[in-house]
Design brief:
Strand content: 25-35%
Shape: elongated
Number of helices: 7
Number of domains: 1
Oligomer: single chain
Radius of gyration: 20 Å
Largest sheet: 9 strands, antiparallel
Strand order of the largest sheet: 2-3-4-5-1-6-9-8-7
């Protein structure tokens, strides 16, 4: 099963004047909605914004509350099962805080809601050939050989897939062979040896799914985001099974 090593989420909306009028209430909600959750919390470097951070041995969580957006990031050095992302206690805690923040900021419509998942996975079937060779095999052999003759050997290879679905979702996906550099490029913390088990994987995914201009009054981070994670999981499973 695919594992998520980092989840980034963001909700963009018009400038919230209720938030500007209730910054004391906002800071209290950020600090106390989930008691004892944050390692640090307080004013951020951006004007009129707050930031919070939770650091422990197995995860790193950050949260930002600004005039016109809420955003955050969660990461895990060995990853968590993609199908259980929204069962994770840190994710559920952020969901509770987002619900309270949206009430205080009186946000009913969002200009954009998005989640970005960085994931790792193994091929469904073990075969000869490196992950780079197998992913590069998605391109016609003649073109691949032409690239080699023109530029030299292939050390990495990526596929970028952009589009939209009938239900109004847009996405940008970058997929390629897993390389040890990948986690280091996306993690906010330096996990060093704690993240070494990730090197057993074959594929790396950067999946950005978003939706624009819609009512969020009936949603939550959990309710909106969980269905998008399912789409990402299905895409990863397809790739793991069908890359020869």
């Amino acid at each position: 099963m695919a594992r998520v090593i980092r989840l980034h989420w963001r909700l963009d909306f018009d400038v919230s004047y209720p938030y500007l009028d209730k910054r004391g209430t906002a800071l209290k909600a950020l600090s106390e909605t989930v008691e004892g959750f944050w390692t640090t919390v307080g004013p951020a470097t951006l004007p009129l914004s707050f930031a919070a951070e939770k650091v422990d041995q197995t995860s790193h969580t950050v949260f930002s509350w600004e005039m016109a957006n809420l955003n955050g990031s969660l990461e895990w050095p060995t990853g968590i099962d993609i199908e259980r992302v929204f069962e994770n206690p840190e994710v559920r805690a952020c969901d509770r805080i987002v619900k309270e923040a949206l009430k205080i900021a009186d946000v009913r419509f969002v200009n954009r809601a998005g989640i970005r998942l960085f994931c790792v996975e193994k091929f469904a079937k073990r075969q000869t050939g490196s992950a780079v060779e197998r992913v590069a095999g998605l391109v016609a052999p003649a073109f691949r050989e032409g690239l080699k003759e023109t530029m030299g050997r292939t050390d990495d290879f990526a596929v970028i897939y952009e589009g939209s679905s009938e239900d109004g979702l847009a996405y940008r996906i970058q997929m390629g062979p897993y390389l040890p550099k990948n986690p280091r490029m996306v993690f906010l913390r330096k996990w060093e040896e704690l993240s070494q088990p990730l090197d057993e994987n074959d594929l790396f995914f950067d999946i950005d799914i978003f939706e624009k201009t819609f009512s969020f009054s009936e949603h939550s981070l959990f309710r909106w985001g969980s269905t998008k994670v399912t789409k990402a999981a299905n895409f990863i499973e397809f790739c793991a099974k069908n890359i020869r």
